[in-house]
Amino acid sequence: MTRTDEKVGNPQKSKRPDYTPAGGARSVQNALRILEGRWKLVILFQLFGGQRRRFSELEKAIPGVSQKMLIQQLRQLEADGVVARIVHHEVPPRVEYHLTEWGQTLCPALDALLVWAEAAPPEVREWLVEPAGER
After folding, report:
1. CA 45, 127, 124: angle at the middle one, nearest 5?
2. Using CA atoms, how far apart are residues 107 and 50, in angstroms rounded to an integer?
3. Which helix (H) or strand (E) element contains residue 95?
4. Cα-flanking dihedrals φ and ψ of residue 132, to 5°?
5. Ramachandran region, residue 37 (left: φ > 0; alpha: ψ -120 to 50; beta: rest)
6. Between vectors from CA 104 to CA 128 and to CA 98, what angle results, nearest 5°?
7. H helices present in 3-54, as ranges
């Protein structure tokens, strides 16, 4: 008699390449280049779950970000293919942002990052919540 896990097993092998330490580091650096910037992760969290947000909604939801910086970070995310911009030709003009299909695939990775941060030792967590200038 065949075991259930043998019947249901996934016959496809992972298409993930084998990374060398140098190749893996290079790939991570490329990914971090896309995500680097003070406001990019905050923007991404605002757009997760298929949400479409108007520029003004993002501006209100992210306290402390200047209009210029928000525009800059959104343009970079758009150029990298993570965020899509929709312009509605109305008066007054309306612009909405949402994650691309590829951008949406970041959700599990960032969720894992949140879980990792929550598991930090207490002495590390203390300084994680302090504003950067007070360390």
Report:
1. 95
2. 11
3. strand 94-99
4. -55, -35
5. left
6. 95
7. 4-8, 21-35, 40-47
The CA radius of gyration of the chain, in Å to the nearest whole number, is 20
Q: Which pair of tokens denotes residue 28?
A: 């991570």
Instruction: Give the CA distances from residue 48 to residues 1, 31, 110, in Å, rounded to whole numbers and listed in that order.
Output: 46, 18, 10
Q: What is the Cα–Cα distance from 57 to 114, expressed in whole angstroms?
A: 24
Q: Which of 99, 80, 66, 94 is nearest to 35 (CA)?
A: 80
Q: Which of 65, 23, 18, 17 lies closest to 43 in space, CA to CA?
A: 65
- C-alpha 31/C-alpha 25 separation (Å) is 10
> With the C-alpha atoms ordered 19, 21, 23, 27, is the resulting torsion angle positive or negative?
positive
- What sign does the dihedral 38-86-51-93 (CA atoms) show? positive
At 71-114, the pLDDT tens digits run: 999 999 999 999 999 999 999 889 999 999 999 999 898 889 88
CB atoms within 10 A of CB 28: 11
pTM metric for this prediction: 0.74
Residue 99 and residue 47 in contact, taking contact as beta carbons nearer than 8 Å: yes
